[in-house]
Amino acid sequence: MDSFLIAFQAQVLYDFTAEPGNNELTVREGETVTITNQSIGGGWIEAQNSKGQVGLVPEDYIEVRFSDSDTADVLQHTQYFISNNYNNNISSLCVLQASNGNDPWSVWNADSSGGFNNNWASNPEGTPADPWGSLDEWDDEWDDMKSTGGYAESESGESGAIQRGGTSMKISLNKFPGFSKSGPELYLLCKQLPKEKEKLTIYMGEVGPVWSYPDTQLDCVVADPKKGSKMYGLKSYIEYQITASTTNRPVNHRYKHFDWLYERLLDKFGSAIPIPSLPDKQVTGRFEEEFIKMRMERLQGWMTRMCRHPIISSSEVFQLFLTYKDEKDWKTGKRKAEKDETVGVMIFSTIEPEAPDLDPLDVEKKCEQFSRFTKAMDDSVKEILTVGQEHWKRCTGPLPKEYQRIGKAFQNMSTVFTSSGYQGESTLTDALTAAGKTYEEIAQLVAEQPKKDLHFLMETNNEYKGLLGCFPDTIAVHKAAIEKVKEGDKLVGTNKITAQEKGTMAKRLSTMSYALQAEMNHFHNNRIYDYNRVMQLYLEEQVTFYETIAAKLRQAHSQFTTM
Amino acid sequence: MDSFLIAFQAQVLYDFTAEPGNNELTVREGETVTITNQSIGGGWIEAQNSKGQVGLVPEDYIEVRFSDSDTADVLQHTQYFISNNYNNNISSLCVLQASNGNDPWSVWNADSSGGFNNNWASNPEGTPADPWGSLDEWDDEWDDMKSTGGYAESESGESGAIQRGGTSMKISLNKFPGFSKSGPELYLLCKQLPKEKEKLTIYMGEVGPVWSYPDTQLDCVVADPKKGSKMYGLKSYIEYQITASTTNRPVNHRYKHFDWLYERLLDKFGSAIPIPSLPDKQVTGRFEEEFIKMRMERLQGWMTRMCRHPIISSSEVFQLFLTYKDEKDWKTGKRKAEKDETVGVMIFSTIEPEAPDLDPLDVEKKCEQFSRFTKAMDDSVKEILTVGQEHWKRCTGPLPKEYQRIGKAFQNMSTVFTSSGYQGESTLTDALTAAGKTYEEIAQLVAEQPKKDLHFLMETNNEYKGLLGCFPDTIAVHKAAIEKVKEGDKLVGTNKITAQEKGTMAKRLSTMSYALQAEMNHFHNNRIYDYNRVMQLYLEEQVTFYETIAAKLRQAHSQFTTM
């Protein structure tokens, strides 16, 4: 990406006042700046104002502008830049925070798709069987369009969106500014932890540390997508109905609300719990209906995963999203959630393990183990996705075409035989026609099968790819904390901290480790269920598929005779 | 082929005395001539002797020589030339004879493979699953090798063979000189038909004119290929055991004996009955065993087809081949068969239809119908061969590789999950391993399936391709006869023939037509049986294939659990 060094002109969207000593740059709404360094990471961008002053500005606060004629040319590059840079940002953030930080899983940086935004089933030939469009398709033309610079509310939804029809592109890629500004020190060395009303208890279960699970698991249904419009019908969007199992009363939400929820969960829990990205905007269908169906299915998957998580599902913000009573209730709750200060690493301050403190060495061992496992699983998931994608292509492309040709060849032979003028030909010609049609039916079955089985195997692995993509960040916070604690003696020696503070640090690291272990156990538990379930579904459909073909062929076979 | 005009030096193998007025050239054994025109057709080649005299010489009588160093370069071209020229010869022959002759089925001329010598299952990557080698593999190195020019006997076997190890190549491509030298006039205008002991009767059956079928159908088994050697072990060959159902006593024959039989049958019956080529020499296996197995299978197929034919199976030469008592019996029979004068169109003189004479217009109509049908079936057969070949490649190439990768991906995931350190993992990991192994087994099944079903579908169609390739010649003889009879009035008017001879011609044309109809009905009857049978076999194996996979997957499915 080093070769991509276009100096963008950007417009400042909101006032930002620099904090002294942080290399930041104060900017005012409406001001134009030149971006001088995009690869700062951590949600920051280096910009130069008209006076020549250079400093860091939050990415969220600026908007790059193109002239109409430039847009098309640059868009493609930029898009690639964005998706790459997003990962670089997160990675470099982690590297900066972990004092012994080595590039966590460098393979992920090379992979432009972070969460759900891998286009695994894209088919260059674009057969109708392919429910995923190409990379450059965006849905913003008809869903959740925004006017240039028109951020009336401080909603951070729709970040990273590129308006195809318009001339504006907002670079807003750092999803968790709270997280980015605070290393684990903030928690480890905090003099006085805030008194939290709600405590997140960790118990010792059969498998080790576990979160406190509710008696009844929350569930919800995402359904009934409806097209709505605003601005006198000029702009349209899709609204989904979400019904929680606890209330059985539907609430409406647009994609941008899901995105808002995601941002809040990431802010609040991201340091302790991997929050998978929302289904990506890039996943679009060739047709509106297909797209809506696919997005809804993935939003459902995301919501189900959130509902299954004991901490997330019982959080105030998640409950608000699922059960708000009216518009006023929603707005009030939103404002409150946005003001929540227990975000980033401070989430650990609310965690109370009911178990003896762990030795830092054990903490490190555990952390290393999780790191190795999630990395290995990530590789394995990607292997399945690659293999599955190839298989999908073959099943929807050359293979059915071949069965079709076999079917046609048999039917053509039947037609030729019919013209023989020989008596007693009809049994054979009827049988040949039937056999030919059977192979045409098999072609159809083959082409439609991936949607029935491979689809779910791919979706599950895709979801896990997104989830596993969050672990390096979560684990990096822990590694940074471990390093900090390792420095403890030195810090005491140089009077940076007291011996008591060193003890507190070790204790808090233990708490962090319990949280990570509880989360890993939650992950393992879900993983075992998810993979059992998706493999059952896959193999069940595969069995039906092969049995259906066998039955059809048996029927075709019965028509031939050699009496 | 016009661009391929290398002037070959050729050695004369046998004395040949020119017939006056025929543009022929008298040559003597051992003489060297220069080939000046290879595209004469009809088994003739234009050559120039050392005195500068130019004339036609039978292709059979000369042998082209290369120096060792030239051989490799020229061989490939020559091979192509030969296979093309063979068809050209036959076609041009027919065109010459049929006075209104248009190029019968020009597509066949473009196709270099006449009979069995299409390498339909050749796989450029040469996977072990491919039982057919590449085009330039010849078996002569170890089977039926001949020394340069060393034709001690007048055996015409091994025609068209190119000796790879040696420096000699014999152009001997006109398989039926008797046929080539006599148009249908020889029979139509013959003053006095020879008195034949044996008559071939044609009856009117339910389907129209039919040959006289024996009560019991002859059958034979080709088995037990054994390596023999001659010239003190310097040259080796394979001897097959052929056992006729009538004698149940095995006789031994080498491939060259089959070839001799083929030549005799072609000489004698070729004008009335399509005699399919022997399995081609070019069909070789990668390994000796594979090759022998394949050749034996095809020789069996050829013999079975001959046994099924009422005229061929009861002919003296075929009975000799199957039931000769000892070497002396064989040699005597051979000599007698080679002296048989009822060859070419004269075979019609032995045919006695027990039905009223046909009107020449009806004869023409029938002939046209057969021509259309066999052409259409030829196209259809070729379509199946093309589609089948592609399917074969996919089933033995990319498809099993893909299933293998799916299997490996599941097993890799199982390995990763095993490393989780989480309790209660083993049920899932065992199930994943089993599922992975199942897909590896499926890969194996897929790769091996074509040998079990597609193979026979291909072989049958390949056989029919060879058989259909003989029809243009047979039909061309009839068309030439029809044209001759049409000229009847003009010939009477110019006193070329008498009115009585004209009547005889029409009557003999009727006999020819009955023979063609009987042969077509024989063909249809066999075709219906063969295609019913091969489709039954194919579909039966396909059903088993899909059911086996379904059962394996069902077993794999049962190991997953979501209790």
TrEMBL record, chains A, B:
SUPFAM superfamilies this protein is in? PX domain, SH3-domain
PROSITE patterns under this entry?
PX, SH3
Membrane topology is: Peripheral membrane protein
Statement: the UniProt record of this protein carries the keyword Protein transport: yes
**Per the UniProt entry, what is one GO biological process?**
endosomal transport
Q: Where in the cell is it found?
A: Cytoplasmic vesicle membrane
Question: Which positions are annotated as binding a 1,2-diacyl-sn-glycero-3-phospho-(1D-myo-inositol-4,5-bisphosphate)?
Answer: 254, 256, 295
Domain SH3: residue ranges = 5-67
Q: Which residues span the membrane?
A: none
InterPro entries with a match to the protein in the record = AH/BAR_dom_sf, PX_dom, PX_dom_sf, SH3-like_dom_sf, SH3_domain, Snx9_fam, SNX9_PX, Sorting_nexin_WASP-bd-dom
Q: Which GO terms describe its cellular component?
A: cytoplasmic vesicle membrane; plasma membrane
- What GO terms are given for molecular function? phosphatidylinositol binding
Question: What UniProt keywords are attached to this protein's entry?
Answer: Cytoplasmic vesicle, Membrane, Protein transport, SH3 domain, Transport
The answer to keyword Chaperone applying to this record is no
**Domain PX, which positions?**
218-328
- Primary localization: membrane
Q: Which family does it belong to?
A: Belongs to the sorting nexin family.
Q: What is this protein called?
A: Sorting nexin
What is the source species? Nothobranchius furzeri
